[in-house]
Amino acid sequence: xxxxxxxxxxxxxxxxxxxxxxxxxxxxxxxxxxxxxxxxxxxxxxxxxxxxxxxxxxxxxxxxxxxxxxxxxxxxxxxxxxxxxxxxxxxxxxxxxxxxxxxxxxxxxxxxxxxxxxxxxxxxxxxxxxxxxxxxxxxxxxxxxxxxxxxxxxxxxxxxxxxxxxxxxxxxxxxxxxxxxxxxxxxxxxxxxxxxxxxxxxxxxxxxxxxxxxxxxxxxxxxxxxxxxxxxxxxxxxxxxxxxxxxxxxxxxxxxxxxxxxxxxxxxxxxxxxxxxxxxxxxxxxxxxxxxxxxxxxxxxxxxxxxxxxxxxxxxxxxxxxxxxxxxxxxxxxxxxxxxxxxxxxxxxxxxxxxxxxxxxxxxxxxxxxxxxxxxxxxxxxxxxxxxxxxxxxxxxxxxxxxxxxxxxxxxxxxxxxxxxxxxxxxxxxxxxxxxxxxxxxxxxxxxxxxxxxxxxxxxxxxxxxxxxxxxxxxxxxxxxxxxxxxxxxxxxxxxxxxxxxxxxxxxxxxxxxxxxxxxxxxxxxxxxxxxxxxxxxxxxxxxxxxxxxxxxxxxxxxxxxxxxxxxxxxxxxxxxxxxxxxxxxxxxxxxxxxxxxxxxxxxxxxxxxxxxxxxxxxxxxxxxxxxxxxxxxxxxxxxxxxxxxxxxxxxxxxxxxxxxxxxxxxxx
Length: 669
Prior knowledge:
It comes from Saonia flava. The chain is an alpha/beta fold. Helices cover 29% and strands 19% of the residues.
């Protein structure tokens, strides 16, 4: 007898002699199996079925009693089916249950193939997630309602709870030695899922309520599933979503708002004095289900509620809405759960949750920052852009977003309405925003440069501190690292890494750069804004130009560099201080240390003869081998002491409607 046949024979014999296993459902066995059972031979035999059912993409099909014995024909069938990936799903607990089983088993039976199968299953969940943060019922995607974001029967919540346990290193997942990079991916997926939940919460007449069983993956709106499952608000599916949100240790104000609104909706939509009467025949078969009114009956909620007024409704397979359960046919009336009491668990836990949140608010000193971004799941968000998008528009008070160390490979935009934001990194060296966009990659015509920034700031009163921002395109033409088009913007203790066009200082506003490292090749500091650079290192990576100001005509100040050091790569020997992108360019260097890579002439007119009369290029008390005032272009200037006083920070950065001493930048430290 072959080894495979011997195994199947013994496995079948074992199950035929062990009624204990056969009397349990797969779900009950996974969730309630004892440590002794997971450490025993039965679990070790069952796992072979689990591995057989796992498809090559890492997922599992649904409604499979994994603990049941398999015939030889079924084993061969499953082996062939593995490669199709058809039927992999998160519906009815599929994939989540199998991963829980593998994690529990691995604690006692540490075989690498079990761990590998677990990690493969996690990869399946990560791949199946939409960019919006939701999960479809099936992946690979199937046509029809299967592709909707699926809360039905807790599909997405099951996935989210599993990911939450992994990222928080809960037992037994802490036994699996999951790589840090994988945990980071899991944390990102979880946070994206939370944001999807918040986006799909239904707004009814301007008031947040609950969720539908499924939502459109693009519009986030309630969506239809089967013919009798119309777009609606669901008491059953909404309850576990709220319980998941309540389990978040430090919820953002938006999460708190979502919970408060959902709890109020549960209160408003509950059915009082209503009881479901079920009648069974002698064999225990359900033969009748009726709704009766009786005093002091426990609260119930309808599974389907009208999107406009929360009124319960019912449907037969014809999809026609009925107002009463008695109006639909017996098959659907008896064969479907039209009511639920699950929201009572939310209302039960709400007071304790409320007290916990109240204490957090009473002692805000425990939370140094309003919002935390972290890739390990310890923050409110896993991506910087999600934190920005969650911020209130035009807030009266400053919002501080703390970003923990990590490489955040994302394109970040601070929208015009995201005013009063401070983006603070954990450390300048290790908190990194990185993206790859350049002129050719964008391919939007002659203005492609302006679409390339890794970090784009359009909002006033913005502060970035302790960050590295990099455009990883390399020396491939125009590729902006940081673009700032607003006013009262401070960039403090940051590294701006790039090549051509690293820093774009756009607009007519005031910008302040302090203790920053800025590197690049051609025109790597350019634009029209008034910008003051203090104690910065300006590093040239090739022979070219540092600045290309485009100061508008009539503007009092352009670029001012004070107490900065100008350095270069070892082979760089011919660098200009600046050339005029537009002919009224203004650039001043004061008390700066210039290495020998700065050529004696220092300034270039960009083949614009007019610029020699209209630009204002000047220096005062610079030093170093690159400072050769007598050799400078004759149309540039060396300032007198009196003239240099005009370029004090307090004057250059003063706002027109401010008193001179009201230095907005002083608060950005």
